[in-house]
């Protein structure tokens, strides 16, 4: 493999104008500067990470060549800490989320009354079931260090630390064995949730209100990086950790997935065509606030980290 491992990010300086960058260590180099300085003109675009996805394999090979040149000189490099991190993929088409995909999370939600106690209990045996996915609005994306407003009518804001992947070329009825051929890389994210609005007491027969419980503004912080899959040795052996005000709440591992990301991609692509830029958020481990009836307050700071993918730090503030 040519070049050193790199990450990709979307950032803004003080002028607020977003730019795509290649990140080596703690230095971000605008893609436009990196391509020009390296003499490598093979990228389909330098304007956005999303614009690279459709021809990902070819663009990744060029990015490897660019990273090799940047080892010697980093023109226009800026410390990541001095930049505003924006969501790596600015305008995803669809955002799929896996519901209750860790057994410990299944169990804690049953204890908390968010899942029916009657009927057969799901024990992680997959032969009689399939992944359970829901959609979250792309408009609720937020940057890795953005403040998150607490809606005035929400009393139980909760956290869900998760790993996400982004789709490259379209896929329809893709099999598990080929699913990763349609993935560019991995990101840290959080499925922030409004638990008091997630179950509709006025419509008990319908139970979950996924829109009202999940898609408030900035309820999907993501980033700060997209880490190409080639640099993630095993996406099924990564720790997922979350703390609130420095107190660890979640400490799990992707090895605990009930349904793997590949199985989720197979399931979803059998229903509808996956498009370039679609995102899969693959499930949270145990330790969410609902499990202990402990929720976010204005002023709380939530830190979310997935091994090797970067750490987010989001403060909750009063709405408007």
Question: What brief labels describe this structure?
Answer:
320 residues; SH3 type barrels; 7 helices; globular; 6-stranded mixed β-sheet; 17% helix; Fumarylacetoacetate hydrolase, domain 2; alpha+beta; single chain; 2 domains
Quick gist of this model?
With 320 residues, this protein is an alpha+beta fold. It is built from seven helices and 20 strands.
Please tell me about this protein's structure.
The chain is of the alpha+beta class and 320 residues long. It has two domains: 80 residues, SH3 type barrels, CATH 2.30.30; 224 residues, Fumarylacetoacetate hydrolase, domain 2 (Alpha-Beta Complex), CATH 3.90.850.10. The chain has seven helices and 20 strands. The chain has a six-stranded mixed sheet. It has a five-stranded antiparallel sheet with strand order 4-3-2-1-5. The chain is globular, with a radius of gyration of 20 Å. The N and C termini lie far apart (48 Å).
């Amino acid at each position: 493999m040519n070049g050193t491992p790199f990450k990709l990010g979307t950032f803004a300086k003080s002028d607020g104008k977003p730019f795509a960058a290649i990140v080596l260590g703690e230095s971000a180099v605008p893609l436009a500067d990196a391509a020009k300085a390296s003499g490598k003109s093979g990228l389909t675009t330098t304007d956005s990470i999303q614009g690279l996805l459709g021809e990902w394999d070819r663009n990744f090979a060029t990015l490897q060549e660019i990273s090799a040149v940047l080892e010697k000189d980093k023109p226009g490099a800026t410390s990541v800490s001095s930049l505003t991190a924006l969501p790596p993929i600015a305008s995803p088409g669809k955002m799929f989320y896996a519901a209750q995909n860790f057994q410990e999370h299944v169990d804690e939600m049953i204890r908390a009354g968010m899942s029916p106690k009657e009927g057969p209990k799901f024990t992680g045996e997959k032969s009689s079931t399939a992944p359970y996915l829901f959609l979250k609005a792309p408009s609720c994306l937020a940057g890795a260090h953005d403040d998150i407003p607490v809606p005035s009518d929400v009393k139980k804001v909760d956290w869900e630390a998760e790993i996400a992947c982004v789709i490259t070329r379209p896929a329809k009825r893709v099999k598990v064995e080929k699913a990763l051929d349609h993935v560019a890389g991995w990101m840290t994210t959080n499925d922030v949730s409004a638990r008091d609005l997630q179950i509709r007491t006025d419509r008990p027969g319908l139970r979950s209100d996924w829109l009202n419980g999940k898609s408030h503004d900035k309820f999907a912080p993501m980033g700060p990086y997209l880490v190409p899959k080639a640099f993630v040795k095993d996406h099924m052996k990564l720790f997922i950790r979350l703390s609130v005000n420095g107190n660890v709440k979640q400490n799990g591992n992707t090895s605990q997935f009930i349904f793997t990301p590949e199985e989720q991609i197979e399931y979803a692509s059998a229903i509808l065509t996956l498009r370039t830029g679609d995102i899969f958020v693959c499930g949270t481990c145990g330790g969410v606030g609902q499990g202990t009836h402990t929720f976010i307050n204005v002023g709380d700071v939530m830190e979310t980290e997935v091994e090797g993918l970067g750490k987010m730090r989001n403060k909750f503030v009063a709405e408007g």
